């Protein structure tokens, strides 16, 4: 039978151990299941937000139709053509010229009713290059409209309408008409427009 003082000593040691274990816990510490509040700073994702591409401002071009092709130049091309003041662009290219804040003009054959449409626009760098690329894919290159790379000329025909496109000196020039059966048919007017633009 243990002596009383030994039993008391064991009880004191056990009590001290219990108190020591109780002192190891911190009541204010969050439990493992607690989630951080919304006020915490989120960790960086590791990738910055993409920088938006700069937008190109349009370059409006405005001119009188008689300054782009004079009455004498049109008469020399075909005396049956006169101005068509109510002309409205319908083809994709002429509509695109109008949307780019360019100038669109029309002339009508007084005998056949055939139209000649002209569009001239000045485009920002990327838009200009995109139009040249599209014309190169959709049309045939025409070196007689001017010497590349200073002048890029193209011709195409669809639906009975011939279309000449010329890119030179920052201008996008579109000429289209049923009168243009081949590239050479539009060449006199291409030359006239380019000459008049150079004189501005």
Which features characterize this protein?
200 residues; alpha+beta; Protein Transport Mog1p, Chain A; seven-stranded antiparallel sheet; 6 helices; 34% helix; globular; ATP binding
Helix and strand layout, with pairings?
Blueprint lengths: L3 H20 L41 H4 L2 H7 L3 E3 L8 H8 L3 E7 L5 E8 L2 H14 L1 E2 L9 E8 L2 E8 L2 E7 L5 H16 L2
Antiparallel strand pairs: 1-2, 2-3, 3-7, 4-5, 5-6, 6-7
Q: TL;DR of this structure?
A:
This protein is α+β, with helices and mostly antiparallel strands and 200 residues long.
Largest sheet, in brief, is: 7 strands, antiparallel
Rg calculated over all Cα atoms: 40 Å
Number of strands: 7
Report the CATH architecture of one domain.
3-Layer(aba) Sandwich
CATH superfamily of one domain: PknH-like extracellular domain
Q: Helix/strand-derived class? A: alpha+beta
Number of helices: 6
| Element-by-element helix/strand order | HHHEHEEHEEEEH
Instruction: Write the CATH fold name of one domain.
Output: Protein Transport Mog1p, Chain A
């Amino acid at each position: 039978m243990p002596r009383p003082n030994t039993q008391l000593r064991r009880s004191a040691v056990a009590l001290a151990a219990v108190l020591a274990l109780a002192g190891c816990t911190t009541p204010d510490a969050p439990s493992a299941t607690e989630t951080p509040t919304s006020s915490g700073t989120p960790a960086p994702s590791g990738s910055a937000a993409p920088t938006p591409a700069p937008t190109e401002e349009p370059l409006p071009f405005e001119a009188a139709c008689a300054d782009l092709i004079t009455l004498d130049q049109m008469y020399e091309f075909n005396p049956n053509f006169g101005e068509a003041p109510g002309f409205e662009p319908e083809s994709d290219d002429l509509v695109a010229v109008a949307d780019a804040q360019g100038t669109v003009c029309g002339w009508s054959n007084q005998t056949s009713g055939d139209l000649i449409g002209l569009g001239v626009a000045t485009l920002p760098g990327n838009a200009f290059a995109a139009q040249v690329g599209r014309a190169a894919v959709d049309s045939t290159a025409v070196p007689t409209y001017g010497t590349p790379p200073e002048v890029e000329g193209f011709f195409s025909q669809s639906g009975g309408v011939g279309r000449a496109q010329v890119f030179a000196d920052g201008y996008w020039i579109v000429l289209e008409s049923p009168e243009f059966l081949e590239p050479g048919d539009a060449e006199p007017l291409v030359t006239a427009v380019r000459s008049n633009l150079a004189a501005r």
